[in-house]
Amino acid sequence: MDADRLPGGLGVWAGRWFLLRYRGRFAGKVIGRTLYWGAALAAGAGAWVAFPSVGARVVVLIIAAVIIGDNIPTFNRRWGAPVTAQTQPALYALVEGVARRLDVPTPDRMWLISFGPAVRLFLDGRRSMLRFHVAAVSCLTRAQLEALVAHELVLSRYQRRRLVLRLRTACLEEMDEREERNRKAERNLARLSTFWSTVEEGSDTAATTFTSSEKAAEAFVIGDLAGLEYTGYQVDVRPPKPEDEAIQDIEEGWPLFVAHGDAPTTMDDDHAREARYHRTLAGPISRLGEVRLELPADRVVLEKIATTDQRRLEPGWRSRSQVRSYTFGSAPAQWWLARARKDADDVREWAETADDAELLDALVQRADERRGWLNLYAEYRLLADGWRLEHPAVRGVLIDPAGERVDITRMDPDDVRALIAPTLVA
After folding, report:
1. N or C: which end of the chain has fewer CB within 10 A?
2. Which domain holds residue 20?
3. By the 8 A CB rule, do 216 and 147 touch?
4. Considering only CA atoms, which of 101, 218, 117, 215 is closest in space to residue 156?
5. What is the mean pLDDT of each run of 10 residues along the chain (426 residues)?
6. Are residues 244 and 111 located together in one domain of the fold?
7. Radius of gyration of the chain (CA)
8. Three-class SS state of 2
9. CB contact set of 303 (below 8 Å; sequence gap of 6+)
């Protein structure tokens, strides 16, 4: 490819000019970073000269180390849990294998995160970074994960990959905000149409070298669904005071949640939303039927994440350092009773009745459309009666006082009524 041209024949300077004007975002980021480091350097030099004592200069050096460390992924908790040959050998080896097959360099850094796309390549300075959504990795087959990795790594073939990645980000943002930005979004997408088509077709083609078009299409939909559902899962298992407390092993409950079948299936709107991001795979994505999150037998199984790295995944630690640490095993049982009580109150509000017997009858009669609410209410009644959850990540699966496991989500509604009727207040 001509060094002065980008994919689709877009000129390098035309691409730079587009980004400079694009909503002021990329230009503002460059200017802001320049001002930030300029001010930090000036302040540090001034403090060094103004305070010649050894103690004061040690303080200056410590402050400088903290500022620099906050901008280095290895020391910044907001980046996620690092993926290396030691921490996640199977996942790391998969990326190396994909890189060799595509004849591109292995990314300099890899991370597990709990937000964003299933797999995404980006640059930090001169280093390439590859991010994996921890929830998506568990729900994809090995071949599907390879396809998503190939979709990203193939972008490293371009000579000006930083510029290509920034322009791709601009395209994705405009697609996401097409309705809000209307004509501006359409105009920007028209300007980058050929560029986007060339880049995305190349990425889709790379993805289909590792699996069929149908499986690759399914991988993108599963990755999107896993990310969305994991956000709801995080909310469901968060402590009563998330500003002060956090579950550090939250990702370990996710496979249990998925295996129990609690995640919803995709809808046609989900397929249409994902299809607009693709060229070659748009057709196969649109033709997909119902897609459900599962734990494939041939998935890449993640190693247990170290405690310090688990904290990089949990949202409570990404913005604060002073939070009380709990695991699912050490969390107070009162947390889950309080969660169930709140859900039961929401159910009562829907039914507009304070009478428990009347509420139970209404839930059983409408179990076909309100089965989830029946499960939540039954869970509360049983927890309040001395039962406990088998695992807080899986709703409706409890252990009775005798130690027997009971899954109320698999029971007939009338059997659920019979089970909790004795717990109702007369």
Report:
1. C
2. 7-70
3. yes
4. 101
5. 78 87 58 62 69 68 61 56 94 97 94 92 86 96 97 93 90 83 84 92 95 95 93 90 84 94 72 84 89 93 89 61 84 94 90 83 86 92 95 95 94 93 76
6. yes
7. 26
8. coil
9. 87, 88, 89, 90
